[in-house]
Task: inverse folding
């Protein structure tokens, strides 16, 4: 599984844990007959809450490692993602504090739980939903030997942020009409580059990024070697 796919999986698990915590909380608050006992619902709510916190921690750590590469011109989707992540961490911290230390404020916990669920739903839609909409069906297997690509040239997660910042404006992944550059999905399964007809290899793609053919702007002075490696790793997952 690629790093991008792993991030999507964690986002979906985050949403699943949030859903379980929310439904158990609502069941506890509801009046009338319940299918499960209050004690069972509390156990479910506690386990789901712990799982939610773990998934939040994992995603925040992964995001924090990639954050230095975002720069000050991040795509709107990335900005929204960052704001929601900060909001989730803050709300989760308040909910834990209210439950553990400030019991008089515990009455606000349900409202915090509903807000956390809404944030988790939005993050899942931004992450998993975006991947599902823009990727479509999986690309054909990559001919590794023909492409001459290394097994791991960098972090695909960081490369995704670099792609959104530098490349997505001209190479959209949604098949938009009027795109300036070609759709790069399945690039490593192609025989040649659209721009100059060169065979698709790490070096030919790297050369196209640094000193491109056609109307594409050069990125040799904008991206360092490591950033190019990260970008290539992400493009290989498309």
Result:
């Amino acid at each position: 599984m690629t790093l991008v796919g792993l991030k999507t999986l964690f986002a979906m698990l985050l949403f699943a844990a949030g859903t379980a915590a929310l439904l158990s909380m609502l069941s506890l608050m509801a009046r009338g007959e319940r299918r499960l006992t209050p004690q069972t619902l509390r156990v479910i709510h506690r386990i789901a809450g712990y799982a939610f916190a773990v998934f939040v921690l994992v995603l925040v750590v992964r995001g924090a490692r990639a954050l230095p590469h975002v720069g000050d011109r991040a795509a709107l989707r990335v900005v929204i993602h960052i704001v929601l992540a900060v909001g989730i961490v803050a709300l989760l911290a308040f909910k834990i504090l209210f439950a553990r230390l400030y019991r008089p404020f515990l009455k606000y916990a349900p409202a915090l739980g509903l807000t956390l669920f809404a944030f988790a739903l939005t993050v899942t839609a931004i992450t998993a939903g975006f991947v599902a909409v823009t990727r479509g069906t999986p690309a054909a297997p990559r001919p590794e030997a023909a492409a001459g690509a290394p097994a791991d040239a960098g972090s695909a997660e960081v490369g995704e942020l670099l792609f959104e910042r530098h490349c997505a404006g001209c190479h959209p992944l949604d098949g938009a009409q009027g795109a300036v550059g070609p759709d790069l999905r399945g690039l490593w399964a192609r025989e040649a580059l659209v721009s100059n007809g060169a065979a698709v290899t790490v070096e030919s793609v790297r050369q196209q990024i640094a000193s491109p053919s056609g109307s594409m702007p050069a990125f040799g002075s904008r991206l360092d070697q490591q950033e190019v490696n990260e970008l290539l790793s992400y493009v290989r997952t498309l």
User: Anything to note?
Assistant: The helical segments are 3-29, 38-66, 76-100, 109-135, 144-147, 156-166, 202-210, 225-235.
